[in-house]
Amino acid sequence: MELWITNFQGELAALTGAFLWAASSAAYSLLGQKISPLKLNLFKGLIAIALIFLTLIISDKLQTKVNSTTINLFMISGILGIGLGDTAFFSALKNMGARRTLLMETLSPPITALLALIFLGEQLTFGAWCGILITVGGVAWVISERTPGTAISNVNIKQGILWAIFAAIANSSGAVISRFALLSSDINPLLSTLFRLIGGTIIVVLLLLFQKIKQEKSEEFKFSIKLVGAIFITAFSSTYLGIWLQQTSLKFSPAGIAQTLLATSPIFIIPIAAQMGEKISIRSVLGVLVAVVGISLLFTLQ
Question: At 215, phi and psi to the nearest 5?
Fold first, then answer.
């Protein structure tokens, strides 16, 4: 059992990260109504950075001798994946809603696998490619189900599609760069998470400043213990732990497989929704089963 966990620690980290992101999704939907996405990103990033610093100090893993090139690669990865990618994702959500945006996000795993093949020479077996496609197909099947009462007005589909494609490319590029940096150094995944978050947070700050310069109207942040507590909990679970697990998965498993498993959040939402009393359709269950088959292939046919 211990050997199995060691052999698949990257894949297991990715699935755990996907679960945490799924568990945090409900909180994000509520927070998004009270605070702008950019400000939410900023606060989450700052909290996660502080938590990572604290963890590194306590665990005595704060490496002082890290190659500047490695640091720059992780920061570029964070700028692309966390800063630009997340911002584009939120813009896609705003323009065409969650269902279509999440459906477009299923492009990320195959894009990642292709980029890793081209730039890292990371070749996957036929079985692994089948696993990726089946998993993505299952997730897409779940997401593409139409839910009554979820239509949104003033949907700008074309703009939303462009934002979603940009988000998928940015996230994939960030993952591949991060994978390269992790493979070419012995850096701790948690420390790499810190550099990625710093890069992403810098972009968010710049975007907020740009927004202020343009004098765009933004929501006022109304301080409350409840709101701050919710932001802290989501930052801890999805940003601090989630991105740490993402980095761990990218270090110990091929980029395409890691991104595929990280993209399985929607299938974890199904049992969570069921526990909350939501009615689950047969199609959703079948989609989850298809995705599980794909995941099993990624564990057995690599």
Answer: 60, 40
Helices 85-105 and 37-58 pack at an angle, to 10 degrees, of: 100
* Cα distance between residue 149 and residue 89, in whole Å: 22
Compute the distance between CA of residue 289 and CA of residue 209 in angstroms, rounded to an integer.
45
Q: Rounded CA gap, 285 and 270, in Å?
A: 8
Q: Which residues contact 164 (CB under 8 A, 6 or more apart)?
A: 88, 89, 92, 96, 100, 101, 104, 105, 107
For the question of whether the overall pTM of this predicted structure is more than 0.85, the answer is: yes
Encode pLDDT of 66-89 as tens digits: 899 999 999 999 999 999 998 888
What are the CA-CA distances from residue 39 to residues 30, 46, 291 (Å)?
A: 14, 11, 34
Angle made by CA atoms 290, 294, 295, in degrees to the nearest 5 = 115
Q: Which amino acid is at 85?
A: G
The torsion region of residue 129 among left (phi > 0), alpha (psi -120 to 50) and beta comes to alpha
pLDDT digits (tens, 9 = 90+) for 102-115: 788 889 999 999 99
Q: How far from each other are the two terminal CA atoms of the chain, in whole angstroms? A: 18
C-alpha 201: how far from chain center: 15
pLDDT over 60 at 150, yes or no? no
pLDDT, tens digit (0-9, with 9 covering 90-100), for 211-251: 877 765 555 666 678 888 888 998 999 999 999 999 999 99
Residue with tokens 């998470």: 193
Quote the distance between the C-alpha of residue 167 and its chain's center.
11
Q: How confident is the model at residue 152 (pLDDT cuts 50, 70, 90)?
A: low
Separation CA 122–CA 28 (nearest Å): 34
